[in-house]
Amino acid sequence: MVPFMYGLIAEKENFIDRVEDRRQLKTFLGGGINVMLISPRRWGKSSLVKAAMEELKDEDRQVRICYLDASRIISEDEFYNKFAMSVIEAASSTLEKKWTDFKQYVQALIPGVKLKASAFDSVEMEMELNFAPLKDSAEKVLNLPEQIALDKDLHIIVCIDEFQQLSYLPNWKKMEATMRSVWQHQHHANYCLYGSKRHMMTEIFNDSSNPFYRFGQVLFMKKIEKEYWIPYITEGFAKTGKRISDELASRICDVVECHSWYVQQFSLFVWMNTETEATEEILNRQLQAVIDTNADMFANDIENLASSQVAMLRAVSAGETHFNAKDVVERYGLGAPRTITLNKKALIKRDIIEANGEGFHFVDPVYALWFRREYM
Fold this sequence. Notes:
This protein has about 375 residues and is α/β, with parallel strands linked by helices. It has helices at about 20-30, 45-60, 75-90, 95-105, 135-140, 145-150, 170-185, 200-205, 225-240, 245-255, 260-270, 280-305, 305-315, 325-330, 335-350, 365-375, and strands spanning about 35-40, 65-70, 115, 125-130, 155-160, 190-195, 215-220, 355, 360. The protein has three domains: about 20-220, P-loop containing nucleotide triphosphate hydrolases (Rossmann fold, 3-Layer(aba) Sandwich), CATH 3.40.50.300; about 225-285, Helicase, Ruva Protein, domain 3; about 305-375, Arc Repressor Mutant, subunit A, CATH 1.10.10. The strands form three sheets. A five-stranded parallel sheet has the order 2-5-6-1-7, with helices on both faces. The longest helix is centred in the C-terminal third of the chain and has 24 residues, at about 280-305.
């Protein structure tokens, strides 16, 4: 039995704390208020949404939850396709009812839509949209949650993960305006839109010039506090016949700044290499293993940066705060004031650094450790 998990939706004993976050999500979404949840990558937002919504479903039998992952959607057609079928999946309890709902709500509204021949080989249904998603058809698809909720006396909550990825689609601005114009009139369906590109998500929802401005409650996800992680780590060791002290469990949290993914990964690496009791030596060795495991991802990021941007990261890593100071510019080769400003904006937009009081720091704590090891 492996006591630490990452890369999957955390459920049951692997889901830690988030009591207040779950309460907020259930209160807002259960009360019909749209939520935009923003956090860095791999903080556990998908697990949080799933846990909160499953609790809400248990508490209110009229609630149905529709889950849609936008991270791999590559076209407008595909979005409307997946949106429609995700809603049907959520609102219908059996395959027969899904088929009935498909005919009633999709085929009836949009001529030319048909199920794939292989659809009934599995529980999940797929369909092909043999039409260009013009404005009228798009509005009908986007109104499906409200229409089905009204007809079935349900409350449908649509949860779209990595929502910001839709902004890469060629027709995004029109899609964005259409989504807002349709969804703002719905009273029996509401939306939880969440993503990990904080700069992009903030721009979509907090910029007054964009359609989704003030669409609902914006929540910025916080880290799980160390006080919850320490017993989780020590108990994970204990239930498999091993031991780690509170002090070393605390150090795991501190080194990776309570980042959910890395706490789980670091803890697992230490656990795998511990026979009976974790030691400082094991922890130090496995920290390097964690950095090495993620190194290719960080190196790929660096390869796509300009040399002056890497220079700025060196200044950030060194704790510099006054990037335009003459000695800092010369020491790190930061370039002209305009270059410094543009690079700072570019690195923030890519979610590599973020403002931290008077200065900046790396968003990803293990990225920061790797960069310090390789470039400082």
